[in-house]
Write a structure and sequence with these properties.
The protein has about 260 residues and is an alpha/beta fold. It has helices spanning about 10-45, 170, 215-250; strands at about 55-60, 75-90, 95-105, 110-120, 135-145, 180-185. The radius of gyration is 30 Å and the shape is elongated.
Length: about 260
């Protein structure tokens, strides 16, 4: 009754099933591993001390920025140069903008420093000038922003002196010197300006260190791949059963085309 399994058509079906089920199991296991890695990274980030409780280190000792060094206090010395305003940034559910100054270090490279946040619109709000002369800043280290960072403006067309994304890639075309692929945010408020003190911008958690939507997408994909594997096996059994029943009907003379 099951000799049909040895026909060329069923050889193709059997080969597909033999290959598809291990592939679905492998992909499901891989997605589950990605989810477990994100959970472990999140737990490690939760166990790290707060940025303000860790001792500062020289900037170059913390680069490149990783999930381990993100948020660490970094120290750099230099003189402030170009200033940019970063619009469309919220703080405490209020609209405003970042005040970003480039700190030219002794190496010649510049470190983007977010000196603080001000409410209002760039160009209509008085911005306190950066300190003159050589200064030493201590700020919480952050990785360059990308298109997935909250608040980033990718539309372009910003007025001169404004910046949509804090990254070396966007700054390198605006200034005639090299820029570090990182930035720092000052944890202490800076006084001045018509609106009073600029508010410090809290350091954000490193990307990939939290249980975000992508983490739960990995968990969802895990279930999907295992379901696909089970569906392939279910359909194979169903096709075998239907073919066997058809062969039995022919043997019993119940089929319409039986002799």
């Amino acid at each position: 009754m099951y000799r049909f399994l040895l026909t060329p058509r069923w050889w193709g079906i059997n080969l597909f099933v033999v290959l598809a089920i291990p592939f679905c199991v492998f992909m499901g296991t891989w997605q589950l591993g990605r989810f477990e890695d994100r959970v472990q990274t999140h737990e490690e980030a939760e166990q790290r001390p707060e940025p303000g409780t860790r001792s500062p280190k020289p900037l170059d000792d913390l680069l490149p920025v990783s999930t381990e060094t993100s948020g660490r206090p970094a120290v750099a010395t230099g003189t402030y140069a170009d200033q940019f305003l970063v619009p469309g940034r919220k703080l405490d559910d209020r609209d405003g903008f970042y005040v970003l100054d480039l700190l030219r270090t002794d190496s010649g490279k510049a470190l983007p420093v977010v000196r603080g946040w001000l409410p209002g619109t760039p160009g209509r709000t008085e911005v306190p000038p950066a300190p003159a002369g050589e200064v030493t800043v201590t700020g919480d280290l952050q990785a360059s922003e990308n298109s997935g960072t909250t608040g980033v403006s990718l539309g372009g067309g910003l007025p001169e002196g404004q910046l949509g994304m804090i990254s070396a890639a966007s700054l390198v075309n605006l200034v005639p010197y090299d820029v570090y692929d990182a930035w720092v945010t000052l944890p202490e408020p800076e006084t001045g300006g018509a609106n009073g003190a600029m508010k410090p911008v809290p350091a954000a958690a490193a990307q990939g260190s939290g249980l975000d939507l992508k983490a739960f997408q990995n968990l969802g994909y895990t279930g999907e791949w295992f379901v696909f594997g089970g569906f392939v096996l279910f359909m194979w059994f169903r096709l075998v059963r239907r073919e066997a029943e058809a062969a039995r009907d022919v043997q019993l003379g119940l089929a319409a085309d039986a002799d």
